[in-house]
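By convention, the token line describes the chain's fold. To illustrate:
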Amino acid sequence: MKIWVVSMECAGIAEAGGVKNVSFSLCKEFSDLKHKVTLFIPVYKCTCLDSLFEFNTVETAAEVELCGRKEKITYTTAKSTSNFDVVLINHPLFAEKEAVYTYTENEEKQNPAHKKGNGHLDGLFLDVLFQKAVCAYGSMIPRSEIPEILHCQDASTAMLPAFVANSKAFKKTNCVVTIHNAGPFYHHSFTSIGEAAWYTGLSTPLLEKAMNGRAIEPFLIAATAGAYLTTVSEDYAKELIDPANAEATEGLSPIFAARHIEIKGITNGFDFDRYNPTSKDASKLPFEFDPEKNDLDGKLKCRKFFIQNIVNTDNFKAEGIKKYGKLECSTEYTKEIFFAYHGRITTQKGIAVLTAAVPAILENYPDARFIFAGQGEPRLEIDIVRLCEKYPGKVTFMNGYNQTVVRLATAVSDFVVLPSYFEPCGLEDFIAQVYGTVPVAHKTGGLNKIDNGRTGFLYESNTPGVLIAKLSEIIMLKTLRPSQIARMVKSGAYSVHHEYLWKTVIQKKYLPFFKEILKNSKE
């Protein structure tokens, strides 16, 4: 089977959110099964090419029409060390971007209009440019190299099925679009038919079928163009077609339901080999340990290292991280109970719920400690910084992204708190469990894969009061029944390693799904 994976990001090349891990693992695991896989991805200023080799510049450049002018695209082919092919899309507008979707602090310094954490002002232009570039590539290569499956990752690539539908080269190609997040701010939608037509060149009748109010939705364009829609967990698939979730999907779920649009839920796998705590090379942690065997000596050593050499030192410097707050700890670092949050600092993630709950926990439980790691909305970052200032010695904030630092933040903690209002799949719970850190999560979407009471804790109503009650319960359990928490540590680590490997997900879910698509296309 020939498969193209089209994504704005991929682990090890250009990283932003959870899409990167899915894109990489799809490419790697299908390739390991001897399918011919090609990844298409733009080249940004932040792109890392260390995992690629055998670079070749494609002699023929492409010109795509966009917003009334022609844009020149060049291509570079390469191979990944994980045994799949890569086509790099080159254009100056991509090359100047320091992050995949949003502006960085440095970009804001250079241009105050480019606010840190905000989406690129030319984001829609970049989306269409990328997708038209992939389509144009198909007209430049032999028909024998055209894919049978074109797998598009999230809204930024969701219009590609409509573009290839007008290309003879892709006559026998079947398109799949995976919805990674249909929440507010993730739709990449156009404000009107006129704007959508100006950018895309797609017909008015097609665009009219993709309307959500006045907006034009890429996911609806995909469905109208005949693409198969999937999403990243079974529970999120149910939520996407439930009209009651109109607010959480910014109006999409009632439309999906009314049109009886099918969305197949396939829960994301986990690339254990990239996080394995028994290998320092894989985990990027300073010490090795094995939660599956309740061997946690290395986890405690990681905690000591993190607090002594990162949190509590004035000489700490790590690229991408600005540090706030220190942590007061007992001599052996075992008396305290550590709670972490690692992820994007955004409204969706329920950060306001957590920051509102922290004061009550700290004021009632003197041994509680909180570690925050991530970046995102400035106002939410400020709330965390204020907690560091108000509760010195009890809250620390690793603001930004550095792989080693953020992994340590999770690995050294007893619990990770995930108060997302909605969560399509969730990766942070997987990472936490592999590192022997028990997840505490709002019962929503993909977080439902946590087995409440066995591999983690779930709570129903996402309010500060409910979260305070849940964390209080957990602190008492940790204090009075540590053996129960120890069993959960072992069960969680074992579950992720043996039930959620990407290899298993590909073989049991994606491969049969793709084969069924090909079978239907021949009938």
